[in-house]
Amino acid sequence: MIFYSIVDLPSTQDYIEEGLAKRGFRITRLNIYTTEPVSRVDQKVLEWAVSAPVVSVASPSAVRAWINLIPKSRQWSNSVACIDETTALAAKNLGSRNVYFPTYPGLEGWVNSILEALQVHEQVQKV
């Protein structure tokens, strides 16, 4: 199960979400920004998202929007699976420590980064 953050625009292509779902991921979509970060989201969905072991993001602006949504009182240190190195660099610069990204950007590499992050999470849980 992954949390998929995305821009809330009519032009948003659902092929990424559909591609992840076809690969067996259960997707909960949370529109976290338009051209500006949203100021309010459903608190139950946000609480679920904050507790997810992996958050997937497809742009530096999505990373910034996500980090800004996390309650300041929360010490959030879960994994971030990024679509590319640029997004991963933004995540690292914003304080994320467990950042995964593909060598080559794109859906297949992103899926592999999500899987890698989930595998590491499962291994840590077993220890």
Automatic annotation (TrEMBL):
Its EC number is 4.2.1.75. It is an enzyme of class 4 (lyase). Keywords: Lyase, Porphyrin biosynthesis. InterPro entries: 4pyrrol_syn_uPrphyn_synt_sf, 4pyrrol_synth_uPrphyn_synth, UROS/Hem4. One of its GO terms (molecular function) is uroporphyrinogen-III synthase activity. Pathway: Porphyrin-containing compound metabolism; protoporphyrin-IX biosynthesis; coproporphyrinogen-III from 5-aminolevulinate: step 3/4. Coiled coil: none annotated. Pfam families: HEM4. GO terms for cellular component: chloroplast. It catalyses: hydroxymethylbilane = uroporphyrinogen III + H2O. The keyword Lyase applies. This is Uroporphyrinogen-III synthase.
